[in-house]
Amino acid sequence: MNWITNYVRPTINSLFSRREMPENLWEKCPECGTMLFHRELADNQRVCTSCGHHMGITPRERFQSFFDGGMYKEIAVPQPLADPLHFRDQKKYPDRMKAAQKQTGEKDAMLIGEGEVLRTRLVAIAQDFSFMGGSMGMYVGNAIIAACEHAVARKLPLVLFSAAGGARMQEGILSLMQMPRTTVAVDMLREAGLPYIVVLTHPTTGGVTASYAMLGDVQIAEPNALICFAGPRVIEQTIREKLPEGFQRAEYLLEHGMLDRVTPRKDLRVEIATILRMLTGQGAVVHGELPAPPPAEPAP
């Protein structure tokens, strides 16, 4: 037995060997392939610093950068029936829900918050594509109704960030019923004279596009977002023709009159606050801290 080879050298190597680098420090941009440091990516709101590609972002991450100081009040959503159809494919529906809840840390695919954006008070609701593809089920319908009712009660505008693959198949016809339910909820805002702005993010498809996602008073989209009812691959296979370049992307829809604006994520705060203050007859957008109040006049 060689004491130096078998004992001394492994001991020294274990003391001075380089620690392995954690796997979650870097993320590869799916568009240009650039490796991005996780802190730099988070500081840039998950937008690639090399090519400007807008990656997926969770509702909590979005609200953190959207609301002033990242502060907002979360609005509760009524819980629907857990498994009304007793649906099962490869897994039971409750098992899929538990897996998605464990992965995302959220109850379902919607989050509602009330707060200020550049001193403009509003209600915001965001869809989470990482939760079962942001699919529209009864919880999503309940969330939009709750957000609209809260906005009407507080006389506040509503901003919705959509991101979905369509209706949730595990809830069958009950998921499709959310299309008319959410349409009626949006009509509540119109009857109250409150603005409703929709920001369509990548991707927004299916029954979500066919209902509340296209009913905004102002329609904004993030760059290169896929916005459609049926996807381009399905359309190509149906009509057996090659689709135009950029078909169903945000810039194509803006050019053809289906959108009002295509706005980068970092500019959404100013854009939305400016539009809302114009629609509600408020003053100009307030940047930074409010000025100090004037000194009190001395008592006579």
Give short descriptive properties of this protein.
globular, two-stranded antiparallel ribbon, about 300 residues, 11 helices, alpha/beta, 7-stranded mixed sheet
Report on this structure:
The chain is an alpha/beta fold and 300 residues long. It folds into 2 domains: 22-55, no CATH class; 56-279, 2-enoyl-CoA Hydratase, Chain A, domain 1. Helices cover 35% and strands 16% of the residues. The protein has 11 helices and 9 strands. It has helices spanning 3-16, 38-43, 59-66, 93-104, 138-154, 172-176, 178-191, 206-209, 232-239, 250-255, 268-279, and strands spanning 26-28, 35-37, 72-74, 110-117, 120-127, 158-164, 196-204, 218-221, 261-262. The longest helix is centred in the middle third of the chain and has 17 residues, at 138-154.
What's the tally of helices? 11
What do we call the CATH homologous superfamily of the largest domain?
Answer: 2-enoyl-CoA Hydratase, Chain A, domain 1
Find the structural class using helix and strand composition.
alpha/beta
Mean pLDDT reading: 90
Biggest sheet strand order reads: 3-4-5-6-7-8-9
> In percent terms, what proportion of residues is strand?
15-25%
| Number of separate domains | 2
What is the count of β-strands? 9
The second-level CATH architecture of the largest domain is: Alpha-Beta Complex
CATH class of the largest domain: Alpha Beta
The CATH topology label of the largest domain is 2-enoyl-CoA Hydratase, Chain A, domain 1
Pick out the low-confidence regions.
none
Largest sheet: 7 strands, mixed
- General shape: globular
User: Percentage of helical residues?
Assistant: 25-40%
